[in-house]
Specification:
The complex is a heterodimer of chains A (236) and B (131).
Chain A (H helix, E strand, L loop, with lengths): L1 E7 L9 E7 L7 H12 L18 E4 L2 E4 L5 H4 L3 E5 L6 E3 L2 E2 L2 H9 L19 H5 L12 H5 L1 H5 L5 H12 L7 H8 L13 H5 L6 H20 L1
Parallel strand pairs in A: 1-5
Antiparallel strand pairs in A: 1-2, 3-4, 3-5, 6-7
Helix pairs in contact in A: 3-7, 7-8, 7-10
Chain B lengths: L6 H10 L4 H32 L3 H9 L2 H28 L7 H29 L1
Classes of the chains: A alpha+beta (236), B mainly alpha (131).
Chain lengths: 236, 131
C-alpha cells in the first residue's frame, strides 16, 4: 500500500494549503498520474490537476513528487520506492487550485524571447536546408516540451519574477545554435543582463528536473560563453 | 491564488532540498560569502583602530591571541577556502569545463579545502595555540 499525501488548496474554501492522505492498495504498473486519476474517480472528485497526453509529450502534468519536479505521467509509483508519496504543485508560481498553478509568468517570459526562427533571407521554394551536423547542435534543447519543471525548480525564479528562467534561456540557446536563424546578436543582447544569463547561480536544479534530460544549465553556460566570445572578438 | 514566492518561500523550500549537491554548494557559497563580507568589515574596523590608536595596538594584538578569537579565525579560513574553491568550480563551469561532473567536482574541491585547512592549521598552530 502506498499513501499519497496530496497538496490541497481551494481559493474559495481554504486560507492555507492542507495535505490530504489517500491510500492506494495496489500500485503495480501505476504512474503517479494514474494514481491521481484513481483518487479523483474513486475517492475525491474535487481534486484538481492538469493532464493530457499521458505520454510525456504535452508537458501539462508536471508536479512536485517527493520534493522533485517530475512528469506525473512517466513516473512509476513503484519506481519511487517509497511507501509515502507527497504530491505538490510545481513550486514558484501561484496556485490556482490544488495541483494547478498559474503558468502566465512562464509563458510571459517564454514569449518575450522570440521563441521562433527568424530568418532575414527570402523564403526558399520548399524548405530551409540544414546539414545533419548543424541540426545536431540543438538536438537536446529542441526536445523541450515546456512543462516548466526546470523553471519552477529554480530558486532564483521563486525570488525574482523578472528572471527569464532556464526554459526561456534554453529556448534562446536553441535558436542561437540554429544555423538558419539570423538574429543571434539580438538574441544575445536580450539575455546579456542581470535578468538573463547572468542571474543564474549554476545550481543544476533545472537540468536535474528536466524530464527530457536537456542540460539546461549547459545551455545557459553556452550562452554566457557566446556573449563573451563576441564581446572579446569585437574588442580586438 | 496562493502565492509561492518570496524570500521566506526560498528559505523554506531550499532547506527542504539542501541534500542536492548543486543546492548544497549554493547554500555553502551564500553562507560563506556573507560570513566573509561581515569578517571583512570587522577586519577593516580592527586594523583601522590599531593604526589610529597607537597605545591600543598592543591590546588588540593581545585579543588576537585569545583562543576564542583564534577559533573564529580558523572558521574564517575554512569559509574563505570553501568559498574560493567553489568559486573556481563555478568559473570552470562558465568556461564549459566539468558541467557533467558537477557533483564530483564539488566534493573534490571540498576535500581540497579540508586538506589545505589542516595544512594551514599545522603551520599556524604553533603561533596561535602553542606560542
Amino acid at each position: 500500500m502506498v499513501k499519497f499525501r496530496v497538496f490541497r488548496f481551494s481559493p474559495e474554501k481554504d486560507r492555507k494549503p492542507r495535505y490530504v492522505d489517500y491510500n492506494i492498495e495496489d500500485t503495480c504498473g501505476l504512474t503517479v498520474l494514474d494514481a491521481l486519476k484513481l483518487i479523483k474517480t474513486d475517492m475525491d472528485p474535487s481534486l484538481s490537476f492538469r493532464h493530457s497526453c499521458r505520454s510525456a509529450i504535452c508537458g501539462s502534468c508536471a508536479v512536485s513528487i517527493n520534493g522533485k519536479n517530475m512528469l506525473a505521467c512517466n513516473t512509476q509509483v513503484d519506481a519511487l520506492g517509497k511507501s509515502r508519496v507527497v504530491v505538490e504543485p510545481l513550486p514558484g508560481y501561484p496556485v490556482i487550485n490544488d495541483l494547478v498553478v498559474d503558468f502566465a509568468p512562464f509563458f510571459g517570459q517564454y514569449r518575450s524571447v522570440q521563441p521562433y526562427l527568424v530568418s532575414k533571407t527570402a523564403p526558399p521554394e520548399k524548405e530551409r536546408i540544414q546539414s545533419v551536423e548543424a541540426r545536431k547542435k540543438y538536438d537536446a534543447p529542441a526536445q523541450c516540451i515546456m512543462c516548466a519543471a526546470c523553471t519552477t525548480s529554480c530558486p532564483i525564479v521563486w525570488t525574482d519574477d523578472k528572471y527569464l528562467g532556464p526554459a526561456a534561456l534554453t529556448k534562446v540557446w536553441r535558436f542561437v545554435a540554429d544555423s538558419r536563424d539570423d538574429i543571434t546578436d539580438e538574441r544575445l543582447a536580450m539575455v546579456n543582463n542581470e535578468y538573463g544569463i547572468w542571474r543564474c547561480h549554476t545550481m543544476f536544479r533545472c537540468a536535474e528536473a528536466c524530464p527530457k534530460e536537456i542540460d539546461t544549465t549547459e545551455a545557459i553556460e553556452n550562452l554566457r560563453r557566446e556573449v563573451l566570445k563576441r564581446a572579446f572578438s569585437r574588442r580586438r | 491564488m496562493l502565492k509561492q514566492s518570496g524570500f521566506g518561500y526560498y528559505v523554506r523550500k531550499i532547506a527542504r532540498t539542501w541534500k542536492e549537491t548543486g543546492t548544497l554548494a549554493h547554500i555553502v557559497h551564500r553562507v560563506t560569502g556573507i560570513l566573509l563580507v561581515v569578517y571583512l568589515g570587522v577586519h577593516i574596523y580592527v586594523v583601522t583602530q590599531a593604526s589610529l590608536n597607537g597605545e591600543g595596538y598592543e591590546s588588540i594584538l593581545e585579543m588576537f591571541r585569545d583562543p576564542l578569537f583564534a577559533a573564529g579565525e580558523l572558521i574564517m579560513i575554512m569559509g574563505g577556502l570553501v568559498h574560493g574553491l567553489n568559486g573556481i568550480r563555478l568559473t570552470l563551469f562558465d568556461m564549459g569545463i566539468g558541467l557533467k561532473h558537477q557533483k564530483a567536482m564539488f566534493w573534490a574541491f571540498m576535500v581540497i579545502a579540508v586538506a589545505v585547512w589542516f595544512a594551514g592549521l599545522a603551520i599556524v598552530w604553533p603561533v596561535i595555540g602553542g606560542g
